Amino acid sequence: MVMARGRHAGRNDAELLQTLLEACGQCEEVPEAQVDIHTGLSGSGVAFVCAFSEALAEGAIKMGMPSGLAHRIAAQTLLGTAKMLLQKGQHPALLRTDVCTPGGTTIYGLHALEQGGLRAAAMSAVEAATCRAKELSRKSLVDCTLPPAWGSLRGYDWSGSPHQWELPSPPQAGVSMVMDHCKGDMASEGLSTGNAGQVPHMAGQLGEGMRRAPGMRSACGPF
């Protein structure tokens, strides 16, 4: 997952948030402009990888392998490959080259993938998902003015429909609060989890008299 600082977030705020998020996995701080790209790559990428895993398995099924076994082997292949890439820190092209024996099975299979346009299709998928994330961000307009009595937040959800969210309890003074908005994937300016779950979103630093304009984000700021 990735996180981005709002203009009111200091180094201590960022370090605290990163420490909390790293309990769930790898977390890196990025410029805010890259959060939507992360949604296209990681948030939506789960579905892209599943589609590829399914296609690998179905190729084996076509050649006579039982379905359950084919899907297990395909998933294990993806898992093993991902572990090698992370552990060695190499560019994927290097690992791909190591696997290719001259005149062997892998290079013949890669040739078939190139003929089918796999590389271009994957790049286009990430581009399309990122562009859609940016569109949804622009459509989102959330009123972050706190009502006189703490307890709810009025605004618009990611589909543009009016919505009111019930907030749990007043935060203590000096406590930062990160809320989520804009897209159907769990992503916000302050953090992007990379999960593909569809949830309602709201976002921003909540402060007295503060309003949000479309597409603006300022998560992780102190009250």
What does this structure look like?
The protein is mainly alpha-helical. The protein contains seven helices and six strands. It has helices at residues 11-21, 35-43, 45-62, 67-88, 92-99, 105-116, 118-139; strands at residues 2-3, 28-29, 152-156, 162-166, 176-177, 221-222. It has a two-stranded parallel ribbon. The chain has a two-stranded antiparallel sheet with strand order 3-4. A two-stranded antiparallel sheet has the order 5-6. Helix 2 crosses helix 7 and helix 3 (45-62) crosses helix 4. Mean pLDDT is 74; it is low at 143-148 and 171-223.
Placed side by side, the strands forming the largest sheet appear as 1-2
Helix count from the secondary structure assignment = 7
Q: Please compute the radius of gyration using only Cα atoms.
A: 22 Å
Instruction: Report how far apart the termini are.
Output: 25 Å
Q: What is the number of strand segments?
A: 6
Portion in beta strands: 5-15%
What structural class do you assign from the helix and strand content? mainly alpha
Globular, elongated, flat, extended or rod-shaped: what is the shape?
Answer: elongated
